[in-house]
Sequence to fold (575 residues):
Amino acid sequence: MREHDVLVFLLSLAVLLSVARLLGEGARRLGFPLVFGELAAGILLGPTVLGRLSPSAQHGLFPGGVPSNMVAGYTNVGVVLLLTVAGLEVNLGIVRRRGRSALLTSLMGIVMPLAGGVLLGVLLPDSDLMQPDKRLLFALFMGVALSISALPVIAKTLLDLGLFKTDVGLLVMAAAMIDDLVGWLAFSVLLGPMQGGALNLGSVARSVALTVGFVVVSLLIARPLLGRLVAHLQADHHSGPRRVLSLIVLLSLFGASFTQWIGVHAVFGGFIVGVVIGDTPHLKERTRLIVHDFVTNIFAPVFFASLGLRADFVKSFDLRLCVVVFLVATGAKVIGCTLGSRAGGMRWRPAAAVGFGLNARGAMEIILALLALEAGLLREQVFVALVVMALATSLVSGPTMKWMLRGADDETLASLLGCGAWIPELDASSAREAIEKLVASLSGQLGNLAPRVTRAVLDREAVASTGLGDEVAVPHAVIAGLSRPLLAMGFARAGIDFNAPDADDARIVILLLMPPRAHEKEVRILAEIARTLLDPTARERLLEANSQAEVIAFLGATRPREEPMRRSRTSLADI
Fold:
Protein backbone atom coordinates (compact mmCIF):
# COMPACT_ATOMS: atom_id res chain seq x y z
CA MET A 1 0.00 0.00 0.00
CA ARG A 2 1.49 3.30 -1.09
CA GLU A 3 1.54 6.38 1.14
CA HIS A 4 -0.42 8.21 -1.55
CA ASP A 5 -3.27 5.67 -1.23
CA VAL A 6 -3.44 6.30 2.51
CA LEU A 7 -3.47 10.06 1.92
CA VAL A 8 -6.29 9.81 -0.64
CA PHE A 9 -8.31 7.54 1.67
CA LEU A 10 -7.98 9.88 4.65
CA LEU A 11 -8.82 12.92 2.53
CA SER A 12 -11.85 11.32 0.87
CA LEU A 13 -13.10 10.06 4.25
CA ALA A 14 -12.70 13.51 5.81
CA VAL A 15 -14.50 15.21 2.90
CA LEU A 16 -17.36 12.69 2.94
CA LEU A 17 -17.85 12.95 6.71
CA SER A 18 -17.62 16.75 6.89
CA VAL A 19 -19.95 17.45 3.95
CA ALA A 20 -22.42 14.77 5.08
CA ARG A 21 -22.55 16.13 8.63
CA LEU A 22 -22.93 19.71 7.36
CA LEU A 23 -25.76 18.91 4.94
CA GLY A 24 -27.35 16.49 7.42
CA GLU A 25 -27.64 19.18 10.07
CA GLY A 26 -28.92 21.59 7.45
CA ALA A 27 -31.62 19.09 6.46
CA ARG A 28 -32.63 18.64 10.09
CA ARG A 29 -32.97 22.40 10.58
CA LEU A 30 -35.34 22.45 7.62
CA GLY A 31 -37.42 19.67 9.16
CA PHE A 32 -36.12 16.79 7.05
CA PRO A 33 -34.43 13.60 8.29
CA LEU A 34 -30.64 13.59 8.56
CA VAL A 35 -30.37 10.92 5.88
CA PHE A 36 -31.66 13.41 3.29
CA GLY A 37 -28.68 15.68 3.81
CA GLU A 38 -26.22 12.80 4.08
CA LEU A 39 -27.42 11.28 0.82
CA ALA A 40 -27.38 14.73 -0.79
CA ALA A 41 -23.69 15.03 0.18
CA GLY A 42 -22.89 11.91 -1.81
CA ILE A 43 -24.92 13.11 -4.79
CA LEU A 44 -23.07 16.43 -4.64
CA LEU A 45 -19.63 14.79 -4.47
CA GLY A 46 -20.39 11.89 -6.80
CA PRO A 47 -20.89 11.54 -10.56
CA THR A 48 -24.27 13.33 -10.39
CA VAL A 49 -22.87 16.82 -9.67
CA LEU A 50 -19.10 16.98 -9.14
CA GLY A 51 -18.54 14.34 -11.82
CA ARG A 52 -20.37 16.55 -14.31
CA LEU A 53 -18.72 19.82 -13.28
CA SER A 54 -15.19 18.51 -12.87
CA PRO A 55 -14.66 14.83 -13.71
CA SER A 56 -10.92 15.03 -12.95
CA ALA A 57 -11.53 16.46 -9.45
CA GLN A 58 -14.19 13.83 -8.72
CA HIS A 59 -11.93 11.02 -9.87
CA GLY A 60 -8.95 12.43 -8.00
CA LEU A 61 -10.90 12.67 -4.75
CA PHE A 62 -12.62 9.30 -5.09
CA PRO A 63 -10.44 7.12 -7.33
CA GLY A 64 -10.85 3.39 -7.76
CA GLY A 65 -8.40 0.82 -6.47
CA VAL A 66 -6.98 0.74 -2.94
CA PRO A 67 -8.50 4.02 -1.59
CA SER A 68 -11.93 2.95 -2.81
CA ASN A 69 -11.54 -0.43 -1.12
CA MET A 70 -10.52 1.27 2.13
CA VAL A 71 -13.61 3.50 2.07
CA ALA A 72 -15.71 0.42 1.32
CA GLY A 73 -14.22 -1.30 4.37
CA TYR A 74 -15.15 1.68 6.55
CA THR A 75 -18.71 1.72 5.21
CA ASN A 76 -19.02 -2.06 5.72
CA VAL A 77 -18.25 -1.57 9.41
CA GLY A 78 -20.70 1.33 9.44
CA VAL A 79 -23.57 -0.66 7.96
CA VAL A 80 -23.01 -3.50 10.46
CA LEU A 81 -23.17 -1.03 13.35
CA LEU A 82 -26.23 0.67 11.83
CA LEU A 83 -28.06 -2.66 11.87
CA THR A 84 -26.88 -3.20 15.45
CA VAL A 85 -28.45 0.12 16.42
CA ALA A 86 -31.67 -0.93 14.67
CA GLY A 87 -31.58 -4.18 16.66
CA LEU A 88 -31.20 -2.24 19.91
CA GLU A 89 -34.66 -0.78 19.24
CA VAL A 90 -36.21 -4.27 19.23
CA ASN A 91 -37.92 -5.03 22.54
CA LEU A 92 -39.22 -8.60 22.51
CA GLY A 93 -41.27 -7.83 25.61
CA ILE A 94 -43.29 -5.33 23.59
CA VAL A 95 -43.86 -7.98 20.91
CA ARG A 96 -45.06 -10.46 23.52
CA ARG A 97 -47.30 -7.86 25.17
CA ARG A 98 -49.01 -6.85 21.94
CA GLY A 99 -49.39 -10.55 21.06
CA ARG A 100 -52.22 -11.20 18.62
CA SER A 101 -52.55 -7.60 17.39
CA ALA A 102 -48.83 -7.33 16.59
CA LEU A 103 -48.75 -10.70 14.83
CA LEU A 104 -51.82 -9.96 12.72
CA THR A 105 -50.57 -6.48 11.80
CA SER A 106 -47.10 -7.74 10.97
CA LEU A 107 -48.35 -10.79 9.06
CA MET A 108 -50.57 -8.73 6.79
CA GLY A 109 -47.87 -6.06 6.55
CA ILE A 110 -45.46 -8.69 5.26
CA VAL A 111 -47.72 -10.81 3.05
CA MET A 112 -49.29 -8.02 0.99
CA PRO A 113 -46.06 -6.09 0.22
CA LEU A 114 -44.35 -9.41 -0.47
CA ALA A 115 -47.05 -10.30 -2.97
CA GLY A 116 -47.00 -6.81 -4.46
CA GLY A 117 -43.22 -6.81 -4.81
CA VAL A 118 -43.13 -10.27 -6.40
CA LEU A 119 -45.89 -9.28 -8.84
CA LEU A 120 -44.01 -6.09 -9.69
CA GLY A 121 -40.82 -8.08 -10.30
CA VAL A 122 -42.69 -10.47 -12.58
CA LEU A 123 -44.43 -7.75 -14.63
CA LEU A 124 -41.54 -5.30 -15.14
CA PRO A 125 -40.10 -5.47 -18.68
CA ASP A 126 -36.72 -7.09 -19.33
CA SER A 127 -35.20 -3.65 -19.93
CA ASP A 128 -35.60 -2.86 -16.19
CA LEU A 129 -33.72 -5.99 -15.10
CA MET A 130 -29.97 -6.39 -14.86
CA GLN A 131 -30.24 -10.12 -15.62
CA PRO A 132 -33.61 -11.12 -17.17
CA ASP A 133 -32.72 -14.79 -16.74
CA LYS A 134 -32.81 -14.20 -12.94
CA ARG A 135 -36.31 -12.70 -12.95
CA LEU A 136 -37.54 -15.04 -10.19
CA LEU A 137 -34.69 -14.04 -7.89
CA PHE A 138 -35.28 -10.35 -8.71
CA ALA A 139 -39.02 -10.73 -7.99
CA LEU A 140 -38.34 -12.43 -4.64
CA PHE A 141 -35.92 -9.66 -3.69
CA MET A 142 -38.47 -6.97 -4.58
CA GLY A 143 -41.03 -8.74 -2.40
CA VAL A 144 -38.66 -8.82 0.58
CA ALA A 145 -37.53 -5.23 -0.02
CA LEU A 146 -41.08 -3.87 -0.03
CA SER A 147 -41.99 -5.88 3.09
CA ILE A 148 -39.37 -4.46 5.43
CA SER A 149 -39.86 -1.40 7.64
CA ALA A 150 -37.31 0.99 9.15
CA LEU A 151 -37.24 0.73 12.95
CA PRO A 152 -35.07 3.83 13.58
CA VAL A 153 -37.24 6.03 11.35
CA ILE A 154 -40.44 4.67 12.89
CA ALA A 155 -39.13 5.22 16.42
CA LYS A 156 -38.12 8.80 15.55
CA THR A 157 -41.53 9.51 14.00
CA LEU A 158 -43.36 8.18 17.05
CA LEU A 159 -41.15 10.24 19.37
CA ASP A 160 -41.76 13.44 17.39
CA LEU A 161 -45.52 12.89 17.45
CA GLY A 162 -45.58 12.00 21.14
CA LEU A 163 -46.82 8.49 20.29
CA PHE A 164 -43.85 6.37 21.35
CA LYS A 165 -45.26 5.48 24.77
CA THR A 166 -48.88 4.99 23.61
CA ASP A 167 -50.59 1.69 22.82
CA VAL A 168 -50.72 2.69 19.15
CA GLY A 169 -46.99 3.39 19.27
CA LEU A 170 -46.24 0.09 20.97
CA LEU A 171 -48.25 -1.79 18.35
CA VAL A 172 -46.40 -0.02 15.53
CA MET A 173 -43.02 -0.79 17.12
CA ALA A 174 -43.93 -4.43 17.84
CA ALA A 175 -45.11 -5.04 14.27
CA ALA A 176 -42.02 -3.27 12.87
CA MET A 177 -39.78 -5.48 15.00
CA ILE A 178 -41.40 -8.63 13.62
CA ASP A 179 -41.19 -7.21 10.07
CA ASP A 180 -37.47 -6.57 10.44
CA LEU A 181 -36.72 -9.97 11.97
CA VAL A 182 -38.58 -11.79 9.21
CA GLY A 183 -37.30 -9.47 6.48
CA TRP A 184 -33.63 -9.80 7.33
CA LEU A 185 -34.00 -13.56 7.75
CA ALA A 186 -35.59 -13.79 4.29
CA PHE A 187 -32.91 -11.55 2.79
CA SER A 188 -30.16 -13.69 4.31
CA VAL A 189 -31.66 -16.71 2.54
CA LEU A 190 -31.69 -14.88 -0.81
CA LEU A 191 -28.17 -13.52 -0.47
CA GLY A 192 -26.39 -16.70 -1.56
CA PRO A 193 -28.23 -16.93 -4.89
CA MET A 194 -27.86 -13.17 -5.34
CA GLN A 195 -24.09 -13.53 -5.13
CA GLY A 196 -24.03 -16.26 -7.77
CA GLY A 197 -25.01 -19.38 -5.85
CA ALA A 198 -27.71 -21.75 -7.01
CA LEU A 199 -31.29 -21.19 -5.98
CA ASN A 200 -32.30 -24.67 -4.92
CA LEU A 201 -34.12 -26.23 -2.00
CA GLY A 202 -30.93 -27.69 -0.53
CA SER A 203 -29.08 -24.37 -0.31
CA VAL A 204 -32.18 -22.60 0.96
CA ALA A 205 -32.72 -25.25 3.66
CA ARG A 206 -29.07 -25.01 4.74
CA SER A 207 -29.19 -21.20 4.94
CA VAL A 208 -32.43 -21.27 6.90
CA ALA A 209 -31.14 -23.93 9.32
CA LEU A 210 -27.86 -22.13 10.03
CA THR A 211 -29.54 -18.73 10.36
CA VAL A 212 -32.32 -19.99 12.63
CA GLY A 213 -29.75 -21.86 14.73
CA PHE A 214 -27.72 -18.68 15.16
CA VAL A 215 -30.84 -16.73 16.19
CA VAL A 216 -32.02 -19.40 18.63
CA VAL A 217 -28.64 -19.75 20.33
CA SER A 218 -28.28 -15.97 20.55
CA LEU A 219 -31.72 -15.42 22.09
CA LEU A 220 -31.96 -18.43 24.39
CA ILE A 221 -28.36 -18.88 25.56
CA ALA A 222 -26.42 -15.68 24.90
CA ARG A 223 -29.13 -13.22 25.95
CA PRO A 224 -29.33 -14.08 29.68
CA LEU A 225 -25.53 -14.27 29.93
CA LEU A 226 -25.08 -10.92 28.23
CA GLY A 227 -27.82 -9.43 30.41
CA ARG A 228 -25.83 -10.22 33.53
CA LEU A 229 -22.63 -8.93 31.92
CA VAL A 230 -24.29 -5.62 30.95
CA ALA A 231 -25.64 -5.24 34.49
CA HIS A 232 -22.12 -5.79 35.88
CA LEU A 233 -20.53 -3.30 33.46
CA GLN A 234 -23.13 -0.63 34.25
CA ALA A 235 -22.61 -0.92 38.00
CA ASP A 236 -20.17 1.98 37.67
CA HIS A 237 -22.36 4.88 36.57
CA HIS A 238 -19.39 6.87 35.24
CA SER A 239 -17.55 4.31 33.10
CA GLY A 240 -20.46 1.91 32.57
CA PRO A 241 -21.78 3.42 29.28
CA ARG A 242 -18.29 3.43 27.75
CA ARG A 243 -17.75 -0.21 28.71
CA VAL A 244 -21.09 -1.26 27.27
CA LEU A 245 -20.35 0.68 24.07
CA SER A 246 -17.10 -1.27 23.67
CA LEU A 247 -18.92 -4.54 24.36
CA ILE A 248 -21.61 -3.84 21.78
CA VAL A 249 -19.13 -2.87 19.06
CA LEU A 250 -16.97 -5.95 19.71
CA LEU A 251 -19.91 -8.35 19.76
CA SER A 252 -21.32 -6.76 16.60
CA LEU A 253 -18.06 -7.37 14.75
CA PHE A 254 -17.81 -10.96 16.01
CA GLY A 255 -21.48 -11.63 15.20
CA ALA A 256 -21.09 -10.11 11.74
CA SER A 257 -17.97 -12.21 11.15
CA PHE A 258 -19.83 -15.38 12.09
CA THR A 259 -22.84 -14.78 9.85
CA GLN A 260 -20.53 -13.82 6.98
CA TRP A 261 -18.70 -17.11 7.53
CA ILE A 262 -21.86 -19.22 7.36
CA GLY A 263 -22.87 -17.55 4.11
CA VAL A 264 -25.29 -14.94 5.45
CA HIS A 265 -24.50 -11.24 5.08
CA ALA A 266 -22.56 -9.67 7.95
CA VAL A 267 -25.31 -7.12 8.62
CA PHE A 268 -27.61 -9.87 9.90
CA GLY A 269 -25.10 -10.78 12.61
CA GLY A 270 -24.94 -7.16 13.73
CA PHE A 271 -28.73 -6.93 13.79
CA ILE A 272 -29.12 -10.05 15.97
CA VAL A 273 -26.44 -8.81 18.39
CA GLY A 274 -28.40 -5.58 18.72
CA VAL A 275 -31.63 -7.49 19.40
CA VAL A 276 -29.97 -9.65 22.07
CA ILE A 277 -28.39 -6.76 23.96
CA GLY A 278 -31.26 -4.33 23.41
CA ASP A 279 -33.78 -6.76 24.88
CA THR A 280 -32.01 -7.07 28.23
CA PRO A 281 -33.79 -5.09 30.97
CA HIS A 282 -30.42 -4.07 32.40
CA LEU A 283 -29.48 -1.85 29.43
CA LYS A 284 -30.14 1.72 30.52
CA GLU A 285 -31.80 4.12 28.09
CA ARG A 286 -28.91 6.54 28.50
CA THR A 287 -26.42 3.87 27.41
CA ARG A 288 -28.61 2.97 24.44
CA LEU A 289 -28.67 6.62 23.38
CA ILE A 290 -24.87 6.94 23.66
CA VAL A 291 -24.39 3.92 21.38
CA HIS A 292 -26.94 5.34 18.95
CA ASP A 293 -25.27 8.76 18.84
CA PHE A 294 -21.80 7.24 18.35
CA VAL A 295 -22.87 5.23 15.31
CA THR A 296 -25.16 7.79 13.70
CA ASN A 297 -22.65 10.64 13.99
CA ILE A 298 -19.46 8.83 12.95
CA PHE A 299 -20.36 5.91 10.66
CA ALA A 300 -23.84 6.62 9.28
CA PRO A 301 -22.98 9.92 7.50
CA VAL A 302 -20.14 8.32 5.53
CA PHE A 303 -22.24 5.28 4.64
CA PHE A 304 -25.19 7.26 3.29
CA ALA A 305 -22.94 9.78 1.55
CA SER A 306 -21.07 6.91 -0.13
CA LEU A 307 -24.35 5.82 -1.76
CA GLY A 308 -24.29 8.97 -3.86
CA LEU A 309 -20.90 7.93 -5.25
CA ARG A 310 -22.29 4.68 -6.65
CA ALA A 311 -24.83 6.00 -9.15
CA ASP A 312 -25.64 9.00 -11.29
CA PHE A 313 -28.98 9.96 -9.76
CA VAL A 314 -29.90 12.24 -12.69
CA LYS A 315 -28.99 9.84 -15.47
CA SER A 316 -30.52 6.86 -13.63
CA PHE A 317 -33.70 8.62 -12.50
CA ASP A 318 -36.72 6.95 -14.13
CA LEU A 319 -39.95 8.72 -13.16
CA ARG A 320 -42.07 5.76 -14.27
CA LEU A 321 -40.15 3.33 -12.08
CA CYS A 322 -40.11 5.69 -9.09
CA VAL A 323 -43.88 6.24 -9.20
CA VAL A 324 -44.70 2.55 -9.71
CA VAL A 325 -42.40 1.37 -6.92
CA PHE A 326 -43.71 4.02 -4.50
CA LEU A 327 -47.37 3.27 -5.22
CA VAL A 328 -46.98 -0.50 -4.96
CA ALA A 329 -44.88 -0.27 -1.78
CA THR A 330 -47.17 2.24 -0.07
CA GLY A 331 -50.47 0.72 -1.14
CA ALA A 332 -49.55 -2.84 -0.18
CA LYS A 333 -48.01 -1.90 3.16
CA VAL A 334 -50.72 0.51 4.30
CA ILE A 335 -53.62 -1.72 3.24
CA GLY A 336 -52.04 -4.85 4.70
CA CYS A 337 -51.16 -3.31 8.08
CA THR A 338 -54.51 -1.53 8.31
CA LEU A 339 -56.44 -4.76 7.75
CA GLY A 340 -54.20 -6.59 10.24
CA SER A 341 -54.70 -3.92 12.93
CA ARG A 342 -58.43 -3.88 12.27
CA ALA A 343 -58.57 -7.67 12.66
CA GLY A 344 -56.67 -7.22 15.95
CA GLY A 345 -59.47 -5.09 17.39
CA MET A 346 -58.65 -1.49 16.43
CA ARG A 347 -61.10 0.95 14.89
CA TRP A 348 -60.49 2.01 11.30
CA ARG A 349 -58.76 5.36 11.84
CA PRO A 350 -56.18 4.14 14.42
CA ALA A 351 -55.68 1.03 12.27
CA ALA A 352 -54.93 3.23 9.25
CA ALA A 353 -52.54 5.29 11.39
CA VAL A 354 -50.67 2.07 12.22
CA GLY A 355 -50.51 1.26 8.50
CA PHE A 356 -48.98 4.62 7.59
CA GLY A 357 -46.61 4.42 10.56
CA LEU A 358 -45.23 1.09 9.35
CA ASN A 359 -44.92 2.39 5.79
CA ALA A 360 -41.65 4.22 6.58
CA ARG A 361 -38.73 2.38 4.91
CA GLY A 362 -35.83 4.75 5.54
CA ALA A 363 -32.29 3.53 6.01
CA MET A 364 -33.15 -0.19 6.09
CA GLU A 365 -34.57 -0.09 2.56
CA ILE A 366 -31.53 1.82 1.31
CA ILE A 367 -29.19 -0.76 2.86
CA LEU A 368 -31.08 -3.61 1.19
CA ALA A 369 -31.01 -1.83 -2.16
CA LEU A 370 -27.27 -1.21 -1.87
CA LEU A 371 -26.52 -4.85 -1.08
CA ALA A 372 -28.57 -5.99 -4.06
CA LEU A 373 -26.82 -3.43 -6.28
CA GLU A 374 -23.43 -4.69 -5.13
CA ALA A 375 -24.52 -8.27 -5.83
CA GLY A 376 -25.28 -7.30 -9.44
CA LEU A 377 -29.02 -7.94 -9.16
CA LEU A 378 -30.29 -4.37 -9.71
CA ARG A 379 -29.93 -1.84 -12.48
CA GLU A 380 -29.06 1.64 -11.27
CA GLN A 381 -32.54 2.83 -12.26
CA VAL A 382 -34.20 0.34 -9.90
CA PHE A 383 -31.70 1.20 -7.15
CA VAL A 384 -32.56 4.90 -7.47
CA ALA A 385 -36.30 4.10 -7.46
CA LEU A 386 -35.92 2.13 -4.21
CA VAL A 387 -33.93 4.97 -2.60
CA VAL A 388 -36.55 7.54 -3.65
CA MET A 389 -39.32 5.28 -2.29
CA ALA A 390 -37.48 4.87 1.03
CA LEU A 391 -37.12 8.63 1.47
CA ALA A 392 -40.66 9.46 0.33
CA THR A 393 -42.35 6.91 2.59
CA SER A 394 -40.33 8.18 5.54
CA LEU A 395 -41.43 11.75 4.83
CA VAL A 396 -45.16 11.06 4.62
CA SER A 397 -45.34 8.65 7.57
CA GLY A 398 -45.55 11.22 10.38
CA PRO A 399 -48.00 13.71 8.84
CA THR A 400 -50.42 10.97 7.76
CA MET A 401 -50.33 9.32 11.20
CA LYS A 402 -51.10 12.67 12.83
CA TRP A 403 -53.97 13.29 10.42
CA MET A 404 -55.46 9.84 11.00
CA LEU A 405 -55.39 10.26 14.78
CA ARG A 406 -56.86 13.75 14.85
CA GLY A 407 -60.10 14.25 16.76
CA ALA A 408 -62.11 16.58 18.96
CA ASP A 409 -60.26 17.85 22.03
CA ASP A 410 -63.01 16.87 24.44
CA GLU A 411 -60.62 16.11 27.29
CA THR A 412 -57.56 18.15 28.24
CA LEU A 413 -54.89 17.89 30.92
CA ALA A 414 -56.60 20.62 32.91
CA SER A 415 -60.05 18.99 32.78
CA LEU A 416 -58.66 15.53 33.62
CA LEU A 417 -56.71 16.86 36.60
CA GLY A 418 -59.84 18.68 37.78
CA CYS A 419 -61.55 15.28 38.11
CA GLY A 420 -58.41 13.50 39.24
CA ALA A 421 -55.83 13.87 41.99
CA TRP A 422 -52.69 15.89 42.78
CA ILE A 423 -49.91 14.97 45.20
CA PRO A 424 -47.80 18.07 45.99
CA GLU A 425 -45.02 16.03 47.62
CA LEU A 426 -44.66 12.63 45.98
CA ASP A 427 -42.20 11.08 48.41
CA ALA A 428 -41.12 7.82 46.75
CA SER A 429 -37.80 6.03 46.46
CA SER A 430 -38.65 4.09 43.28
CA ALA A 431 -40.93 4.15 40.24
CA ARG A 432 -42.95 1.28 41.73
CA GLU A 433 -43.62 3.17 44.97
CA ALA A 434 -44.56 6.34 43.05
CA ILE A 435 -47.06 4.40 40.92
CA GLU A 436 -48.61 2.78 43.99
CA LYS A 437 -49.11 6.16 45.67
CA LEU A 438 -50.61 7.74 42.55
CA VAL A 439 -53.03 4.84 42.13
CA ALA A 440 -54.00 5.15 45.81
CA SER A 441 -54.80 8.84 45.27
CA LEU A 442 -57.45 7.75 42.73
CA SER A 443 -58.92 5.00 44.91
CA GLY A 444 -62.21 6.88 45.27
CA GLN A 445 -62.80 6.85 41.51
CA LEU A 446 -61.38 3.37 40.94
CA GLY A 447 -63.15 1.46 43.71
CA ASN A 448 -62.45 -2.27 43.46
CA LEU A 449 -60.42 -1.72 40.27
CA ALA A 450 -57.49 -0.25 42.25
CA PRO A 451 -55.48 -3.50 42.86
CA ARG A 452 -55.82 -4.49 39.20
CA VAL A 453 -54.82 -1.00 38.10
CA THR A 454 -51.59 -1.12 40.10
CA ARG A 455 -50.62 -4.46 38.55
CA ALA A 456 -51.49 -3.27 35.03
CA VAL A 457 -49.42 -0.09 35.31
CA LEU A 458 -46.42 -1.94 36.79
CA ASP A 459 -46.63 -4.61 34.09
CA ARG A 460 -46.71 -1.88 31.45
CA GLU A 461 -43.70 -0.19 33.06
CA ALA A 462 -41.75 -3.46 32.98
CA VAL A 463 -42.31 -3.79 29.23
CA ALA A 464 -41.19 -0.26 28.32
CA SER A 465 -40.11 2.53 30.62
CA THR A 466 -42.43 5.56 30.63
CA GLY A 467 -39.73 8.09 31.50
CA LEU A 468 -39.97 10.70 28.73
CA GLY A 469 -36.82 12.52 29.78
CA ASP A 470 -36.57 16.18 30.76
CA GLU A 471 -37.66 15.26 34.32
CA VAL A 472 -41.09 13.95 33.21
CA ALA A 473 -42.54 10.44 33.49
CA VAL A 474 -46.00 9.28 32.41
CA PRO A 475 -46.78 5.77 33.69
CA HIS A 476 -50.01 4.65 32.07
CA ALA A 477 -52.11 1.65 31.12
CA VAL A 478 -55.38 0.62 29.48
CA ILE A 479 -57.80 -0.64 32.13
CA ALA A 480 -60.75 -2.89 31.29
CA GLY A 481 -63.86 -1.73 33.10
CA LEU A 482 -62.87 1.94 33.08
CA SER A 483 -65.45 4.17 31.38
CA ARG A 484 -63.40 7.37 31.05
CA PRO A 485 -59.77 8.52 31.35
CA LEU A 486 -58.39 9.20 34.84
CA LEU A 487 -55.29 11.22 35.70
CA ALA A 488 -53.20 11.79 38.82
CA MET A 489 -50.17 14.08 39.05
CA GLY A 490 -47.40 14.14 41.62
CA PHE A 491 -44.42 16.44 42.19
CA ALA A 492 -41.29 14.59 43.27
CA ARG A 493 -38.93 17.37 44.29
CA ALA A 494 -35.99 15.00 44.91
CA GLY A 495 -36.59 13.09 41.67
CA ILE A 496 -37.46 9.45 40.93
CA ASP A 497 -35.60 7.16 38.52
CA PHE A 498 -37.91 6.13 35.64
CA ASN A 499 -35.06 4.98 33.36
CA ALA A 500 -35.39 7.97 31.04
CA PRO A 501 -33.24 8.23 27.89
CA ASP A 502 -31.42 11.30 29.26
CA ALA A 503 -30.86 9.57 32.66
CA ASP A 504 -32.51 12.49 34.52
CA ASP A 505 -34.79 11.62 37.44
CA ALA A 506 -38.46 12.52 37.04
CA ARG A 507 -39.74 15.42 39.14
CA ILE A 508 -43.19 15.49 37.51
CA VAL A 509 -44.95 12.12 37.42
CA ILE A 510 -48.35 11.78 35.74
CA LEU A 511 -50.41 8.60 36.03
CA LEU A 512 -52.78 8.20 33.07
CA LEU A 513 -55.43 5.46 33.01
CA MET A 514 -57.35 4.89 29.78
CA PRO A 515 -60.47 2.87 28.97
CA PRO A 516 -60.16 0.21 26.24
CA ARG A 517 -60.21 1.21 22.55
CA ALA A 518 -59.60 4.90 23.28
CA HIS A 519 -56.47 5.17 21.16
CA GLU A 520 -57.18 8.62 19.73
CA LYS A 521 -57.77 10.10 23.19
CA GLU A 522 -54.61 8.49 24.56
CA VAL A 523 -52.56 9.92 21.71
CA ARG A 524 -53.93 13.45 22.18
CA ILE A 525 -53.47 13.45 25.96
CA LEU A 526 -49.91 12.13 25.84
CA ALA A 527 -49.00 14.54 23.06
CA GLU A 528 -50.36 17.45 25.14
CA ILE A 529 -48.31 16.28 28.13
CA ALA A 530 -45.17 16.14 26.04
CA ARG A 531 -45.67 19.50 24.33
CA THR A 532 -46.50 21.25 27.60
CA LEU A 533 -43.99 19.78 30.03
CA LEU A 534 -40.87 19.27 27.94
CA ASP A 535 -40.30 23.03 28.06
CA PRO A 536 -37.92 23.73 31.02
CA THR A 537 -39.55 27.09 31.89
CA ALA A 538 -43.02 25.54 31.95
CA ARG A 539 -41.83 22.75 34.27
CA GLU A 540 -40.27 25.15 36.74
CA ARG A 541 -43.37 27.34 36.82
CA LEU A 542 -45.59 24.31 37.29
CA LEU A 543 -43.50 23.05 40.21
CA GLU A 544 -43.99 26.41 41.93
CA ALA A 545 -47.78 25.86 42.17
CA ASN A 546 -49.13 25.61 45.72
CA SER A 547 -52.54 24.06 45.07
CA GLN A 548 -54.38 21.82 42.64
CA ALA A 549 -56.38 24.82 41.46
CA GLU A 550 -53.14 26.66 40.54
CA VAL A 551 -51.88 23.61 38.63
CA ILE A 552 -55.16 23.35 36.71
CA ALA A 553 -55.13 27.07 35.92
CA PHE A 554 -51.54 26.86 34.65
CA LEU A 555 -52.26 23.85 32.41
CA GLY A 556 -55.34 25.52 31.00
CA ALA A 557 -53.47 28.75 30.27
CA THR A 558 -50.45 27.10 28.62
CA ARG A 559 -52.24 24.41 26.67
CA PRO A 560 -50.55 24.09 23.23
CA ARG A 561 -52.55 24.40 20.03
CA GLU A 562 -51.32 21.80 17.54
CA GLU A 563 -47.70 22.99 17.45
CA PRO A 564 -45.30 20.34 16.24
CA MET A 565 -43.63 18.69 19.17
CA ARG A 566 -39.96 19.54 19.63
CA ARG A 567 -37.58 17.21 21.41
CA SER A 568 -33.96 17.93 22.05
CA ARG A 569 -31.92 15.47 24.04
CA THR A 570 -34.28 12.52 23.96
CA SER A 571 -35.01 12.14 20.27
CA LEU A 572 -33.33 9.54 18.08
CA ALA A 573 -31.24 10.59 15.12
CA ASP A 574 -33.15 10.77 11.84
CA ILE A 575 -31.99 7.68 10.01
About this structure: Residues 561-575 have pLDDT under 50 and may be disordered. DSSP finds 25 helices and six strands in the chain.
